[in-house]
Design goal:
Elements lengths: L2 H7 L27 H12 L7 H15 L26 H13 L12 E3 L3 E2 L4 H13 L4 E6 L2 E7 L7 E5 L9 H9 L19 H17 L8 E5 L8 H8 L2 E6 L2 H10 L4 E3 L2 H13 L4 E6 L2 H10 L6 E2 L20 H10 L1 H23 L4 E2 L6 H7 L17 H9 L6 E7 L4 H21 L5 H13 L11 E6 L1 H16 L6 E5 L7 E2 L17 H13 L3 E6 L9 E9 L3 H24 L3 H13 L13 H5 L2
Length: 661
Amino acid sequence: MTFKDQILEGIPNQLPQPKPFDANINHAPKRKSILSKAEETLALKNALRYFDKKHHATLLPEFKNELDMYGRIYMYRLRPDYKMYARPINDYPAQSKQAAAIMLMIQNNLDYAVAQHPHELITYGGNGAVFSNWAQYRLTMKYLAEMNDEQTLTMYSGHPMGLFPSHKEAPRVVVTNGMMIPNYSKPDDWEKFNALGVTQYGQMTAGSYMYIGPQGIVHGTTITVLNGFRKIKKEPKGHLFVTSGLGGMSGAQPKAGNIAGCITVCAEVNPKITQVRLDQGWIDEKITDLNQLVDRVIKAKAEKETISIAYLGNIVDVWETFDKANIHIDLGSDQTSLHNPWAGGYYPADLSFKEANVMMADNPELFKEKVQETLRRHTAAINKHTAKGTYFFDYGNAFLLEASRAGADIMAENGIDFRYPSYVQDIMGPMCFDYGFGPFRWVCASGKPEDLAKTDAIACQVLEDIKKQSPPEIQQQMADNIQWIKGAQDNKLVVGSQARILYADAEGRMKIAEAFNQAIKNGEIDTIILGRDHHDVSGTDSPYRETSNIYDGSRFTADMAIQNVIGDSFRGATWVSIHNGGGVGWGEVVNGGFGMVLDGSKEASKRLKQMLFWDVNNGISRRSWARNDEAIFAIKRAMAIEPNLRVTLPNLVDEDLLNSL
C-alpha cells in the first residue's frame, strides 16, 4: 500500500502483524498501576471500541499485556509502517488544503527526530501526548484526508469525535486536552483517567500539533539567558550557566547557551537522550566524571570559552560539587519535567537511571520519597550558591512549587512567596510579554529549505523596517530578534519541519504574515502555516509561569486563555486548541494555541489581521488591567493604532494614601 492508501485506510479491516518492542527507541517509562480490577476491564472495553468485534478476541490479551507491562494501552500493533515526518503538503491525500497542513503538523510532532517517546505518541515533557494510542492517530488522519472546507473535526483529548458540518470561516479542527471537572485534576486523576483512555495530557504544543522541535525553546531560552545576564550586569562571555534536562524541551538549553555566548553545564540522567543531543550537535561535549567536569569548567572560565557541556548524571551532584570546588555559577536554573515528578520528570540522586525506573513503577511511594528528598538537597545546594552571588530563576517547570511541597527551604521570609523568581516574573514578563512580544512561528509547508531561507529574509526585512519607527521602550526586543533571525540559518536550528520562530508583537506578526501571504500570491514561496507557542502573551494562564508577574490577585484565574481560544476560533484560525496542564503540570495551568494556513488569498489576508491582532492584545489588555506599566504603555499604543480597540484602563491609587490607613 502507498502512503496515501494507508492514510485513507484508517483503522484497517485486517489487523497488521504485531510489532516487536524496539529497544533502540527512547520509550516512556512504565506508568504506575493505579486502576482497580473493574477499571482495568473498563480500560480494555474502551480500547476495543475502536475495532470491529471480529478482532476483539485477538486484541484483548494483547491490550491487557500492554496495560500490565506499560500502565497504558498504546496499541503498538497499529503503529504505521511508513516513516513518520512532515512531508510536503501536496503529498497528503486531502480534499482540504487546510486539513493537509494539519496532517503535516501532526506527523512533525511524531517525527523520531522531534518526539521524545515517538512509539508512545509523546512529543515532549515525559507525557505531552499528541494521541493516547495509534488507533486515534489512524482515525484522525483518515478524517482529515476526507474532510472538506465546510466541516470541522472535534478532538476530545486525542479522540477524534467526528466531522461536523460548519462553514469555510470556521476552524477545521477544534482540540481540547484534559479539560477536567476542577475537583478531578490532581496528578493521580491524570494517571487514572489517562490509563482508562478517556483523557490525555497535551502539554502545550504537543497536543495542539504546533511543536517545531527544540528550536522554539532555543529561541526563548536564548532571550532568557541574554536578559538574565543583562539583569546581573554581566556579559555572557566566560560566565557560567548551570541547569539540567536534555529531553524534548530542555534539550535546547545548551544550544541557547552557545548562541548567547556563555559556558553552559547541563545535567541529564538519561544516557540515550544525552547521546542523541550530542549526535545532533546540541551539546559540544559529554562528561561522566565530576572531577573532570570541574577541571573542564575551570579551563573554560579561564579561556572565556563559549561551550556547552552535558554531565551524564544527577544535577544535585553538580551543584554540590561546584560548591565544594568553589566554582562560581553566574546563572542557575532547572528544566527537568517537574510538572511530572512521579513518572519520569525528575530523578532522585544516588540511584541509577535503571534503578529509578524500576522503583518508579514497582514502589511509587518510595520513589516519591526519594524525589522529595532529592529536591530538598537540590534546593539546599542552590541556596549555598545564591548566598555567594548566583542568580537563580525557576524556568517554568514547577521546580519552586514541587520543592515547596517537598518541604525544601525555598520560601521567602514572608512564608507566602518563593525565595526565587520565575523567569517570567523576573525576566520575560516585564521585558517581553507585557510589551506584547512572544514566540511567533511559521512552517514552510513545501518542506523546501529554500522557502525557509526566503521567509527568513522577508521577516528580517519587515523587522528592520518596523525598528526604524519603534519607540525606545522596545528597541532592545527588536534588535535581539533581528540578530536572531540573521543567525538562524548558521545555527542549524531546523529539526523536523522547515520551521522558524522569533519573538514579535502584534504589529510584527501581522506585517510578517501579510508579507508571507503576498509572497505566496506572487509565487515566490508555497503555503505557510502560522502558529505560536502557547507560552505567550495571551494564550496561557499559569500562576507560577506565564502569569506570574500578574499582581492584582487574578493570576489563579483562567479567563484569558479561554477568551483567547474562543476569540481565535471566530477570527479566522485554521485550528484551535485548549488544554488543562502544560509546562508546570496537570491542574496547574490552562493554555491554548492556534494554527493558521496562509495560501496567498484575500481571505487569508483578512483572517491574519483580525486574528493576530486579537491573539496578542487580549493578553496585553489583561496585563494592563493588572497595572503592569509596560502593558499599559503597549495597550495605549495599540489603541492609538487601531481605532476600533477600546480597552478599560486602570486608575492607579496613590501608595501613600493606602499606607495612611
